[in-house]
Task: structure prediction
Amino acid sequence: MPHLLDNATVLITGGTGAWGKELTRQVLSKFNPKEVRIYSRGEHAQVEMRREFPDPRLKFIIGDVRDRNILTLAMKGVDYVFHLAALKHVPVCEDNSWEAVLTNIYGTQNVIEAAIQNQVKKVVDVSTDKAVEPYNFYGVTKACAEKLVINANQNYISKTIFMCIRGGNVIGTTGSVVPLFAHQIRKHNKITLTDPTMTRFLMSTKEAISLVFTAFEQALGGEVFVMKMPAANMETVADAMLKLKGNRRTKVGRIKVRPGEKMHEVLVSHNEAKMTYDLNNGYFVILPHYAGAELGRAYQKFPKLKQTEFSSQNTRQLDLAELVKALKKEQWLVDA
Ligand SMILES: NC(=O)c1ccc[n+]([C@@H]2O[C@H](COP(=O)([O-])OP(=O)(O)OC[C@H]3O[C@@H](n4cnc5c(N)ncnc54)[C@H](OP(=O)(O)O)[C@@H]3O)[C@@H](O)[C@H]2O)c1
Result:
C-alpha cells in the first residue's frame, strides 16, 4: 500500500538543522516523495546540505518563517509541512526574548496561515519538553507555538490537520549536554557539572524522527504525541562521557545551575495526564481540551496514562552501561 509521503510534496522548515537533516534522510530513503523543500535562512548550511544530499527531489528555499509572503509562496502545491524552524537555545532565548517571540511564536502562526491558504493536508509542529510548565523563555515561546498549532484545528475553517510532537533531549544535537561534555573534554580535558541529580529525557535522532512519523501517520488533528522515553541523571551522563572520551587526568568541576534550567523535565503535566492515552506502542497521546466526539472515540479503546505526570524523574532511568551503549551508537560521538 502506498504511504502518504509517496508522490507527495513536502516542506520542512528548519530542514538544515539536526532534526531536519535526519527527517530529510528518512523521508528520501524510506518513501518516494515527489519533492522535498527545505526552508531556512542560512545559505551556507543549505549549500553544505545540498552536497551531503545530492538528490534531485530536494529543493532549497532561502526564507525566514517570520516572512509570511515568502513562506506562502514556498508552500504552493505542498501536501505536508514539518515545522522544525526555531530558536532553541535556552540562554539565547533569555537574552533575545523578542527574537524568540518572532521566530517561535509569530513564525509558527505564519506557518499555520500559509498552510491553510495553500490547503496543506497536514502540519506537524516539533515541540519540546521545555514547553510543559515552562520555566525559561524558550519553553514559553514553544508552549505558545504548541497552543497556536493545536488550536488552529478549531480556530479556523480549513481541512488542514494540525498536530504536535514533544521531544526530549536529542543526544547528538547542539545545545544538548552530551556534545557539550564531548567538547569540554576535547578542549579542556574537563567536564563542568551543574547538579549530579538533575535528570533529562534522552532520545536518539532516529527515535525523534520515528515520533514525528507516528504523529504524522496517526493524528486526526489536535493531538500532542509524546514518546515514552527514558532519562538519566547528570552524574550518569558525566560518567558515561568520562568512560567514552575521558582519561585518568580528566577533571570534573562543578558550576551553578544556569538560569532557566529545571531540575527535572516534564513531558506530560499533571493537568494533561487526565487527557492522555497510552497507545501501548511506546507513545502517549495528549488530547486537547476541545476534543470532540471523533477524537474521543478514536482513543477511548486505549488506557489512560497511569502516572499523575510523566517526568524525567519518574520515567525509567538509564544506568551507566545502558547509556554508554546508547552513546556508542551515535556516530558523530564515535568520531568526535
Ligand atoms: N535538539 C533537541 O534536543 C530538541 C529537543 C526537542 C525539540 N526540539 C525542537 O526541534 C526543532 C529542531 O531542532 P534542531 O535541534 O534541529 O535545531 P537546529 O539544529 O538549531 O536547527 C534549527 C533550524 O531552524 C532554522 N531556522 C532558525 N530560525 C529560522 C527562521 N527564522 N526561519 C527559517 N528557518 C529558521 C535553522 O536554519 P537557519 O538558521 O539557517 O535559518 C535550522 O535549519 C526545534 O523546533 C526545537 O525546538 C529540539
